[in-house]
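Support request, please re-run this one:
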Amino acid sequence: MSGAKSQLVNPPKAASKGLKSMTGYAQAHVVENGIGLRVSVRSVNHRFLDLHLRVPEGFEPLEPRIRQIVRERVRRGHLDVTLRYELAGPAAVAVNQEVAAAYLRAVADLRTQFGMKAEPDLASILRLPGVIGTTGAGAASDDEIARLESVVAGCLTEALDKLDHMRAQEASSLHDEMSGRLTSIASLAARVETLAERARPAFARRLELRLKELLGEVQIDPARLAQEAAIAAERSDVSEELARLASHVRQFESLLTGASDVGKKLDFLLQEMQREANTLLSKTPGNEAESIEITEMALEIKSEIEKLREQVQNIE
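Re-run finished. Output below.
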Protein backbone atom coordinates (compact mmCIF):
# COMPACT_ATOMS: atom_id res chain seq x y z
CA MET A 1 0.00 0.00 0.00
CA SER A 2 2.93 2.32 0.43
CA GLY A 3 3.40 2.39 -3.34
CA ALA A 4 -0.09 3.75 -3.88
CA LYS A 5 0.59 6.73 -1.65
CA SER A 6 3.78 7.81 -3.40
CA GLN A 7 2.04 7.61 -6.77
CA LEU A 8 -1.04 9.59 -5.81
CA VAL A 9 0.17 12.51 -3.75
CA ASN A 10 0.53 15.75 -5.73
CA PRO A 11 0.10 14.54 -9.33
CA PRO A 12 2.08 16.68 -11.82
CA LYS A 13 0.34 19.80 -13.04
CA ALA A 14 1.16 21.31 -16.42
CA ALA A 15 -0.38 23.77 -18.85
CA SER A 16 -2.86 22.52 -21.42
CA LYS A 17 -1.41 22.10 -24.92
CA GLY A 18 -4.17 20.87 -27.18
CA LEU A 19 -7.20 20.56 -24.93
CA LYS A 20 -10.34 22.14 -26.40
CA SER A 21 -13.76 22.91 -25.03
CA MET A 22 -16.82 22.19 -27.16
CA THR A 23 -18.38 25.58 -26.41
CA GLY A 24 -17.64 28.67 -28.45
CA TYR A 25 -18.76 31.23 -31.01
CA ALA A 26 -16.90 33.02 -33.78
CA GLN A 27 -17.53 34.77 -37.07
CA ALA A 28 -15.50 36.10 -40.00
CA HIS A 29 -16.35 38.57 -42.75
CA VAL A 30 -14.77 39.19 -46.13
CA VAL A 31 -15.60 41.54 -49.03
CA GLU A 32 -14.31 40.83 -52.52
CA ASN A 33 -15.35 42.37 -55.87
CA GLY A 34 -18.48 43.90 -54.40
CA ILE A 35 -19.54 40.63 -52.77
CA GLY A 36 -19.61 40.26 -48.99
CA LEU A 37 -19.48 36.91 -47.20
CA ARG A 38 -20.05 36.35 -43.50
CA VAL A 39 -19.51 33.00 -41.78
CA SER A 40 -20.62 32.40 -38.19
CA VAL A 41 -19.90 29.25 -36.18
CA ARG A 42 -21.60 28.35 -32.91
CA SER A 43 -20.57 25.23 -30.96
CA VAL A 44 -21.96 23.46 -27.90
CA ASN A 45 -21.21 20.07 -26.37
CA HIS A 46 -22.41 16.85 -28.01
CA ARG A 47 -21.30 13.21 -27.89
CA PHE A 48 -20.46 13.23 -31.60
CA LEU A 49 -19.95 15.76 -34.38
CA ASP A 50 -23.42 17.12 -35.16
CA LEU A 51 -23.02 19.65 -37.97
CA HIS A 52 -25.84 21.91 -39.15
CA LEU A 53 -25.31 24.21 -42.15
CA ARG A 54 -27.32 27.22 -43.26
CA VAL A 55 -26.38 28.63 -46.67
CA PRO A 56 -28.17 31.05 -49.03
CA GLU A 57 -30.26 29.67 -51.85
CA GLY A 58 -28.00 28.69 -54.70
CA PHE A 59 -24.97 28.03 -52.49
CA GLU A 60 -25.82 24.36 -51.91
CA PRO A 61 -22.91 23.19 -54.14
CA LEU A 62 -20.53 24.62 -51.52
CA GLU A 63 -21.88 22.43 -48.70
CA PRO A 64 -19.56 19.42 -49.28
CA ARG A 65 -16.49 21.66 -49.17
CA ILE A 66 -17.74 23.41 -46.03
CA ARG A 67 -18.41 20.08 -44.31
CA GLN A 68 -14.97 18.80 -45.28
CA ILE A 69 -13.23 21.84 -43.78
CA VAL A 70 -15.22 21.63 -40.56
CA ARG A 71 -14.60 17.88 -40.12
CA GLU A 72 -10.86 18.42 -40.54
CA ARG A 73 -10.92 20.91 -37.65
CA VAL A 74 -13.61 19.71 -35.24
CA ARG A 75 -14.07 16.20 -33.83
CA ARG A 76 -17.07 16.54 -31.48
CA GLY A 77 -19.80 19.02 -30.70
CA HIS A 78 -23.05 20.41 -32.04
CA LEU A 79 -22.02 23.01 -34.63
CA ASP A 80 -24.23 25.57 -36.34
CA VAL A 81 -22.42 27.02 -39.36
CA THR A 82 -24.20 29.89 -41.11
CA LEU A 83 -23.09 31.45 -44.39
CA ARG A 84 -24.53 34.82 -45.39
CA TYR A 85 -24.12 36.35 -48.84
CA GLU A 86 -24.52 40.08 -49.27
CA LEU A 87 -23.88 42.67 -51.95
CA ALA A 88 -21.44 45.37 -50.92
CA GLY A 89 -20.41 48.81 -52.16
CA PRO A 90 -22.10 50.26 -55.27
CA ALA A 91 -23.71 46.89 -56.00
CA ALA A 92 -25.36 46.77 -52.59
CA VAL A 93 -28.64 48.05 -54.06
CA ALA A 94 -29.78 46.93 -57.51
CA VAL A 95 -33.27 47.07 -59.01
CA ASN A 96 -34.52 43.90 -60.63
CA GLN A 97 -36.30 45.59 -63.53
CA GLU A 98 -38.00 42.43 -64.77
CA VAL A 99 -39.61 41.81 -61.40
CA ALA A 100 -40.60 45.48 -61.03
CA ALA A 101 -42.14 45.47 -64.53
CA ALA A 102 -44.17 42.38 -63.69
CA TYR A 103 -45.58 44.07 -60.59
CA LEU A 104 -46.45 47.21 -62.60
CA ARG A 105 -48.21 45.16 -65.26
CA ALA A 106 -50.24 43.43 -62.54
CA VAL A 107 -51.18 46.85 -61.11
CA ALA A 108 -52.20 48.09 -64.57
CA ASP A 109 -54.39 45.03 -65.14
CA LEU A 110 -56.12 45.56 -61.79
CA ARG A 111 -56.73 49.26 -62.55
CA THR A 112 -58.32 48.35 -65.90
CA GLN A 113 -60.39 45.48 -64.52
CA PHE A 114 -61.83 47.41 -61.58
CA GLY A 115 -61.78 50.89 -63.05
CA MET A 116 -59.30 52.21 -60.50
CA LYS A 117 -57.76 55.65 -61.12
CA ALA A 118 -55.10 55.67 -58.38
CA GLU A 119 -51.51 55.64 -59.64
CA PRO A 120 -49.11 52.99 -58.22
CA ASP A 121 -46.83 54.22 -55.42
CA LEU A 122 -43.18 53.84 -56.46
CA ALA A 123 -41.94 53.43 -52.87
CA SER A 124 -44.45 50.64 -52.30
CA ILE A 125 -43.35 48.91 -55.50
CA LEU A 126 -39.70 49.02 -54.40
CA ARG A 127 -40.62 47.34 -51.12
CA LEU A 128 -42.19 44.34 -52.85
CA PRO A 129 -40.25 41.02 -52.67
CA GLY A 130 -37.50 40.63 -55.27
CA VAL A 131 -37.58 44.21 -56.61
CA ILE A 132 -34.52 45.41 -54.71
CA GLY A 133 -31.44 43.16 -54.63
CA THR A 134 -30.45 43.85 -51.03
CA THR A 135 -28.34 41.78 -48.61
CA GLY A 136 -28.73 38.09 -49.23
CA ALA A 137 -31.30 38.51 -52.00
CA GLY A 138 -31.20 36.26 -55.00
CA ALA A 139 -29.18 33.15 -55.73
CA ALA A 140 -25.58 33.12 -56.91
CA SER A 141 -24.83 31.92 -60.42
CA ASP A 142 -22.66 28.89 -61.20
CA ASP A 143 -19.77 31.17 -62.16
CA GLU A 144 -20.12 33.04 -58.87
CA ILE A 145 -20.17 29.77 -56.92
CA ALA A 146 -16.95 28.62 -58.60
CA ARG A 147 -15.30 32.00 -57.97
CA LEU A 148 -16.48 32.22 -54.37
CA GLU A 149 -15.53 28.68 -53.28
CA SER A 150 -11.99 29.66 -52.30
CA VAL A 151 -13.29 32.85 -50.66
CA VAL A 152 -15.79 30.87 -48.61
CA ALA A 153 -13.07 28.39 -47.63
CA GLY A 154 -10.80 31.18 -46.45
CA CYS A 155 -13.58 32.93 -44.53
CA LEU A 156 -14.66 29.66 -42.89
CA THR A 157 -11.06 28.86 -41.94
CA GLU A 158 -10.71 32.27 -40.31
CA ALA A 159 -13.93 31.71 -38.33
CA LEU A 160 -12.73 28.27 -37.22
CA ASP A 161 -9.38 29.74 -36.15
CA LYS A 162 -11.23 32.21 -33.94
CA LEU A 163 -13.46 29.43 -32.63
CA ASP A 164 -10.40 27.32 -31.77
CA HIS A 165 -8.92 30.25 -29.86
CA MET A 166 -12.08 30.67 -27.81
CA ARG A 167 -12.39 26.92 -27.20
CA ALA A 168 -8.75 26.71 -26.13
CA GLN A 169 -9.26 29.57 -23.64
CA GLU A 170 -12.27 27.84 -22.13
CA ALA A 171 -10.37 24.55 -22.02
CA SER A 172 -7.53 26.23 -20.14
CA SER A 173 -9.93 27.16 -17.34
CA LEU A 174 -11.40 23.66 -17.35
CA HIS A 175 -7.90 22.19 -17.21
CA ASP A 176 -7.05 24.17 -14.07
CA GLU A 177 -10.30 23.14 -12.37
CA MET A 178 -9.88 19.48 -13.27
CA SER A 179 -6.25 19.41 -12.17
CA GLY A 180 -7.34 20.79 -8.82
CA ARG A 181 -9.90 18.02 -8.44
CA LEU A 182 -7.29 15.39 -9.35
CA THR A 183 -5.06 16.75 -6.61
CA SER A 184 -7.99 16.54 -4.20
CA ILE A 185 -8.61 12.90 -5.18
CA ALA A 186 -4.92 12.14 -4.66
CA SER A 187 -4.96 13.69 -1.19
CA LEU A 188 -8.13 11.84 -0.19
CA ALA A 189 -6.73 8.52 -1.43
CA ALA A 190 -3.54 9.03 0.58
CA ARG A 191 -5.64 9.56 3.71
CA VAL A 192 -7.62 6.40 2.91
CA GLU A 193 -4.36 4.48 2.73
CA THR A 194 -3.25 5.69 6.15
CA LEU A 195 -6.64 4.94 7.68
CA ALA A 196 -6.73 1.46 6.15
CA GLU A 197 -3.38 0.61 7.75
CA ARG A 198 -4.69 1.75 11.13
CA ALA A 199 -7.93 -0.15 10.66
CA ARG A 200 -6.37 -3.60 10.26
CA PRO A 201 -6.03 -4.30 14.02
CA ALA A 202 -9.60 -3.07 14.47
CA PHE A 203 -10.80 -5.58 11.89
CA ALA A 204 -9.01 -8.38 13.76
CA ARG A 205 -10.54 -7.33 17.09
CA ARG A 206 -13.98 -7.17 15.54
CA LEU A 207 -13.56 -10.66 14.12
CA GLU A 208 -12.48 -12.04 17.50
CA LEU A 209 -15.45 -10.46 19.24
CA ARG A 210 -17.80 -11.81 16.63
CA LEU A 211 -16.43 -15.32 16.97
CA LYS A 212 -16.77 -15.19 20.77
CA GLU A 213 -20.38 -14.14 20.40
CA LEU A 214 -21.02 -17.09 18.11
CA LEU A 215 -19.03 -19.73 20.04
CA GLY A 216 -19.84 -18.62 23.57
CA GLU A 217 -17.48 -20.31 26.07
CA VAL A 218 -15.80 -22.51 23.47
CA GLN A 219 -12.06 -21.84 23.35
CA ILE A 220 -10.90 -20.24 20.11
CA ASP A 221 -7.87 -21.79 18.41
CA PRO A 222 -5.29 -18.97 18.06
CA ALA A 223 -4.05 -20.40 14.76
CA ARG A 224 -7.58 -20.52 13.34
CA LEU A 225 -8.23 -17.02 14.62
CA ALA A 226 -5.06 -15.79 12.92
CA GLN A 227 -6.12 -17.49 9.70
CA GLU A 228 -9.58 -15.94 9.76
CA ALA A 229 -8.09 -12.57 10.62
CA ALA A 230 -5.77 -12.84 7.61
CA ILE A 231 -8.71 -13.69 5.33
CA ALA A 232 -10.73 -10.77 6.70
CA ALA A 233 -7.74 -8.44 6.27
CA GLU A 234 -7.33 -9.57 2.66
CA ARG A 235 -10.98 -8.92 1.93
CA SER A 236 -10.74 -5.44 3.40
CA ASP A 237 -7.39 -4.64 1.76
CA VAL A 238 -7.79 -1.63 -0.56
CA SER A 239 -4.20 -1.40 -1.80
CA GLU A 240 -5.09 -2.67 -5.28
CA GLU A 241 -7.94 -0.18 -5.59
CA LEU A 242 -5.65 2.66 -4.54
CA ALA A 243 -2.95 1.54 -7.00
CA ARG A 244 -5.44 1.44 -9.87
CA LEU A 245 -6.86 4.80 -8.82
CA ALA A 246 -3.31 6.20 -8.89
CA SER A 247 -2.83 4.85 -12.40
CA HIS A 248 -6.09 6.42 -13.60
CA VAL A 249 -5.15 9.77 -12.06
CA ARG A 250 -1.79 9.73 -13.87
CA GLN A 251 -3.40 8.80 -17.19
CA PHE A 252 -6.05 11.48 -16.75
CA GLU A 253 -3.45 14.17 -16.06
CA SER A 254 -1.37 12.99 -19.02
CA LEU A 255 -4.35 13.30 -21.37
CA LEU A 256 -5.10 16.79 -20.04
CA THR A 257 -1.63 17.96 -21.06
CA GLY A 258 -1.56 16.11 -24.39
CA ALA A 259 -3.36 16.45 -27.70
CA SER A 260 -6.99 17.40 -28.29
CA ASP A 261 -9.87 15.00 -28.96
CA VAL A 262 -9.52 13.25 -25.59
CA GLY A 263 -13.01 13.76 -24.15
CA LYS A 264 -14.16 10.18 -24.67
CA LYS A 265 -10.96 8.77 -23.15
CA LEU A 266 -11.33 11.01 -20.11
CA ASP A 267 -14.92 9.90 -19.68
CA PHE A 268 -13.86 6.24 -19.77
CA LEU A 269 -11.17 6.87 -17.12
CA LEU A 270 -13.76 8.50 -14.89
CA GLN A 271 -15.93 5.39 -15.13
CA GLU A 272 -12.97 3.30 -13.97
CA MET A 273 -12.18 5.74 -11.15
CA GLN A 274 -15.78 5.57 -10.00
CA ARG A 275 -15.56 1.78 -9.99
CA GLU A 276 -12.53 1.90 -7.64
CA ALA A 277 -14.29 4.37 -5.33
CA ASN A 278 -17.31 2.07 -5.13
CA THR A 279 -15.05 -0.85 -4.22
CA LEU A 280 -13.42 1.23 -1.47
CA LEU A 281 -16.87 1.71 0.03
CA SER A 282 -17.78 -1.97 -0.19
CA LYS A 283 -14.53 -3.03 1.50
CA THR A 284 -14.88 -0.83 4.59
CA PRO A 285 -17.82 -2.18 6.63
CA GLY A 286 -18.16 -1.65 10.35
CA ASN A 287 -18.61 1.23 12.70
CA GLU A 288 -15.01 1.68 13.87
CA ALA A 289 -13.73 5.23 13.65
CA GLU A 290 -11.32 4.31 10.88
CA SER A 291 -14.02 2.58 8.82
CA ILE A 292 -16.32 5.56 9.14
CA GLU A 293 -13.54 7.91 8.05
CA ILE A 294 -12.63 5.71 5.07
CA THR A 295 -16.27 5.73 4.02
CA GLU A 296 -16.35 9.52 4.27
CA MET A 297 -13.16 9.81 2.20
CA ALA A 298 -14.47 7.40 -0.45
CA LEU A 299 -17.69 9.39 -0.70
CA GLU A 300 -15.70 12.59 -1.17
CA ILE A 301 -13.66 10.89 -3.89
CA LYS A 302 -16.91 9.88 -5.63
CA SER A 303 -18.13 13.46 -5.37
CA GLU A 304 -14.94 14.81 -6.96
CA ILE A 305 -15.20 12.25 -9.75
CA GLU A 306 -18.79 13.32 -10.47
CA LYS A 307 -17.69 16.95 -10.67
CA LEU A 308 -14.93 15.91 -13.06
CA ARG A 309 -17.49 14.07 -15.16
CA GLU A 310 -19.58 17.25 -15.50
CA GLN A 311 -16.53 19.16 -16.70
CA VAL A 312 -15.38 16.43 -19.08
CA GLN A 313 -18.78 16.56 -20.84
CA ASN A 314 -17.61 19.85 -22.38
CA ILE A 315 -14.20 18.57 -23.55
CA GLU A 316 -13.81 17.67 -27.23
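The longest strand covers residues 77-87. The longest helix spans residues 142-215.
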